[in-house]
Structure formats: C-alpha cells, structure tokens
C-alpha cells in the first residue's frame, strides 16, 4: 500500500525518531526515566499483537519517504534523482553522536549503503546487494547541521555496479566519501 494510506504509521516512525533523539540527549531524574521506560513498555504491549512477517511490514517499504519509514539510518532527503546519480540532504541527529560533536563512525556506512544501494537498484536495473563498501573519513561529520549528499555510478561491469558518494559539511568540504560494489543478483538468489 502507498504511504498515503498509512499516514498514522508514518507519523509513528517520525515520533520514534524524535524519541530516539530526545532520549539520547536527556539526563532525566530517576522518576522521569522510570516513567519514560513505562511509557515505552506500554508502546511495546500495544503493538506486539500486530507483528507481521517481513513482506507485510511497513517499515523500510515506503521508498517515497525520507528514510523509507524506518528509524535505523538517518533519513536521506532526495532533491534530485536520475538513473545514474542522486543528490540530497541528511542530518545526523544526536542519536548518531559518536563523540565530541562527530557522527558515529558506523553511522556513515549506514547512510552510504542506503544512498548508494538505492541508486544501484534504480533505472530499471535488477536488484543487487552490497558486496563491499569502502568509506574514507576525511574530517569529522558534524552532528546537527544539514549536510549535502551526492552519489553516482562510477562504472558497470556485467553484474558489478561500482558507485561512489560524498557527504559535505555546510562549508562545502567533504567529510567522508565512499565507494561501493553492488552485485546484481542471479534469479532466485536471496
Ligand atoms: C532502497 C534502499 C536500498 C538499501 C540497499 C541496501 C543494500 C544492502 O545492504 S544488501 C545487504 C548487505 N549485503 C549482503 O548481505 C550481501 C551478502 N553477499 C552476497 O549475497 C554475495 O556475496 C553477493 C551477491 C554480493 C555476490 O555473490 P555472487 O552473486 O555469488 O557473486 P560472485 O559470482 O561471487 O561474484 C560476482 C563478481 O563480483 C565480484 N565480487 C563479489 N564480491 C566481491 C567483493 N566483496 N569484493 C570484490 N569483488 C567481489 C566477484 O569477484 C565477481 O567478479 P567477476 O565477475 O569479475 O569474476
């Protein structure tokens, strides 16, 4: 079903992202922490009866939405998308903090896999999977400001799709770049 038919679920994921952000940055007194935990446990109780299999779940399936309605990777906002390149924006929020204002090193491959992987499978191409992802950390990727993300196909060799991408800080400097190999799946390959 298209996202428009699940506006409340989309709102739920946005609320989840907001909760992740707020919890990460909070230092609450014990009684407030306990109340927040009880509220989260209540959410689990509420939703557990509606657990479905992978093919039926909504999370991750809504390609038209930033972040595909999943709260794992930072939401990638697409500005321009073609068959061979994509550009857009991302904010690494407090949830993705590694330390000293820098995004966690593991969160960058998460974003690159999302951006490059999405592009690798566009333009009528068959599904592919990440075979490798090489990330260069050039300078810290700051938590908080909006960052530019660009990616494009470098080359295709048979089933092998080589893509590259960059993240730039508000000054336009590259904080990280990546090269990924995505291998097109053979029929029946999981
Ligand atoms: C919309 C949002 C999109 C999000 C996208 C997210 C994408 C993902 O994260 S997918 C999940 C992460 N990736 C995986 O789980 C993949 C796990 N690995 C696999 O399934 C397989 O190893 C797979 C499909 C990558 C390749 O296996 P297989 O299809 O058997 O390919 P295989 O025949 O061995 O190799 C094909 C070619 O690729 C090359 N190759 C394969 N893996 C690598 C590698 N790691 N490094 C270099 N070359 C490689 C081979 O050398 C071969 O080259 P050539 O044709 O020149 O001889």
UniProtKB/TrEMBL annotation:
Gene3D superfamilies in alphabetical order: Hotdog Thioesterase
Thioesterase domain span: 100-172
Main location: membrane
Entry's localization field: Cell projection, Ruffle membrane; Cytoplasm; Membrane
A GO biological process held by the record: fatty acid metabolic process
Membrane topology category: Peripheral membrane protein
EC number: 3.1.2.2
Enzyme class, first EC level, given as a word: hydrolase
GO molecular function, one term: hydrolase activity
Keywords: Apoptosis, Cell membrane, Cell projection, Cytoplasm, Fatty acid metabolism, Hydrolase, Lipid metabolism, Membrane, Transit peptide
Catalysed reactions, as listed in the record: (9Z)-octadecenoyl-CoA + H2O = (9Z)-octadecenoate + CoA + H(+); dodecanoyl-CoA + H2O = dodecanoate + CoA + H(+); tetradecanoyl-CoA + H2O = tetradecanoate + CoA + H(+); octanoyl-CoA + H2O = octanoate + CoA + H(+)
Annotated family: Belongs to the THEM4/THEM5 thioesterase family.
Protein name: Acyl-coenzyme A thioesterase THEM4
Organism of origin: Frankia alni (strain DSM 45986 / CECT 9034 / ACN14a)
